[in-house]
Every structure is written in structure tokens, then in C-alpha cells.
């Protein structure tokens, strides 16, 4: 079947997933949302750096401490500024090909160095410029074109992330899977089966069952305010039934000690927030919270942003947590424990590569929270990113 230039998913498949059609269609992510794309330390003063977000090539630069972001594509011939960045003034970037020059602050075309009297410089032309915010050591870019109507960053991150006393340490890496496999892996209550032999369980003195099944009572709630973060919150405790024993045709093949005396019971809640952020609280210790972002790079890759936060009000407390992070959690939590998550997402990318898995998938009771997030995302997103948005 032939697709139009704006389609990434077979329309026949979309017709069969009407409950979360926008979610399935959003291979490139959702438009008009905030996403973290770089560490603040990666954008140095006067040194342009590239990134890709939702299929769009971006160029960022720090000027007098403030970060700006424009599309990495000259209007004239479509070449990338980043092939040979030229900044003849601090406030502008010039295309190396013919001298088209643009302001970093708003993307407006100000001059053509090779033809100073050209009429094309009329004050109306320019490349796209995107709003930027820095928070918790991360650079967030608003992927969209809502001029004058950009929602606050707080609407697109989990509750508590931006709290003044939440001290955050972040890192990131590229994962070879669509961003939604990150979202659903992180929010999957039974995927912890793949972590059953993790060294973090011993290091954190915690108990971790083979999986969690929902009890007779609903195990999640939906946060859907008119203003503020939108998400699905999975609550543990009496709302789920942990599995400490695994059977195959009636025979016990795996066991997890069920005596939890003296063990750390983490987490108590796991929540997924629009457009692509996970909150695990507390994790991996009773005094820390893990926040993750699964940022769409293109249709087959996402930027996996891992952060750990703790309450700290003094520089001494921040330094102490930094030492703990470097000496303990960076390896045990973010590498050793989350490593299987990464290759699980990449394996899922193979399964969903032809999109038919969206209608062939055999979901079960424990996936109800994932289905709830799909429906919520389909209803509350601010737009699906399409190839036409990238070309304009």
C-alpha cells in the first residue's frame, strides 16, 4: 500500500487502533512539548552543538550564558550550518555556502554576506527558532511552533522534578529503538522479570519479586488536570500482588525469598508523564527518586536520559550525593540494572518494525496501566510530529 509523504504508519493499521491512534502514529513523537536533549555542560559558550529531536536537526549555542536553538538547515539550499559553523558576530550564525546570516535569538535572516543588497532580506524570512529552558542540569527544547503560547516546562516533567530542593544528577545515551518502547518498558509492572538476577538487589538490600499483577482493586490512577503534568500513576502496596514463585505447568522453577524483614521496599509508586517521562519513587534507595526521559530522536532511536534526584539543601549534601552517585548508583542502578532495559527495548523495536505488532500484540491484565497511558497520550497530546513538520 502506498503512503502519503506525511504517513509513517499504514493507515489500515491506524484504523484498528482507534483507542490510541495518535500514540501509534507518533513514531516521531508528539509536537508542541518540552524535551530534554542535552546536558547543560554540553552547550559551551560560543561553541555551537548539534542535536536531533523528533526527526529535526537542531543547532544550539550558548550566548552570554543563555542557550538558543535553531533548525540546522539554511533556507537557501538546505545545507546544514553545522557542516562548517561560522559566527562572525556573537548574536548570529552565517551559512558557509553563500553567506546567509541569521540571528540565534529568533532565527531571522539578517544579511547575505555574498550579496549585501539582496531583496530577500525583508525581515520576514528566517529559520525556525525553538524555545529553550535549562533546569536540573538539562537543556529542554520546546519542539513546536506555538508562538506566544508555549506551556510552562512544569507541565511536561513529572511532579517534584523541578522542586528547588531536588538535587539531580543526569546522564544520557542513544538507544536503537523507538521512544515508545522506552516508555512502555519503564512503566511495565512485569518486566522486572528480566532484572531478577541484578546485583542492585543485593547492593540496595531490597526485595524484588518476579513481577507485579494487579489485585482486585484498581492499581493505577490518572492525573489529568487542565494545567499541570498529565500522567498515569501506578501505586504498589495493597493494589498489586507480587509474584515470588514462578511455575511452568505446575512445577516451581523459580523462587524469590518472600521474607522481607529488614529489606528496603522500593518503589512505592511508578508513574509515566506526558510526553515521555518516568518517575520511580523511591528508587534505587529510600532517599532517592529516579526520573527517566525517553526522547524521540527519529522513528527508530531515542535519547535515554537517566537522572537520580535526592533532597539536598546545602552544598555539602549535594557533594555527598554526588560521591554516592559516582561510587555506587551510576554503576549498580543506571548501568547494571538498567542495562537489560536497553536491550529489551531494542528487541521490541525488531518486533514492532512493520507496525503489525500494534494489532497482533497479546496484552494481559498487568498491561492495563500501559493501555491507560496510550489512551491518555492519544487524547492529551498537543500534536503528532509528522514528516511535513520537518520539511517546513
TrEMBL record:
Q: Which residues form the Rieske domain?
A: 34-141
UniProt entry tagged with the keyword Mitochondrion: no
Keyword field: 2Fe-2S, Iron, Iron-sulfur, Metal-binding, Oxidoreductase
Where on the tree of life does the source sit, at the highest rank?
Bacteria
Family matches, as InterPro entries: Cholesterol_7-desaturase (IPR050584), Homotrim_ring_OHase_catalytic (IPR021028), Rieske_2Fe-2S (IPR017941), Rieske_2Fe-2S_sf (IPR036922)
Q: Name one Pfam family in it.
A: Aromatic_hydrox
Asked if Iron-sulfur is a keyword of the record, the answer is yes
- Name of the protein: Rieske 2Fe-2S domain-containing protein
Which organism is this entry from? Sphingomonas colocasiae
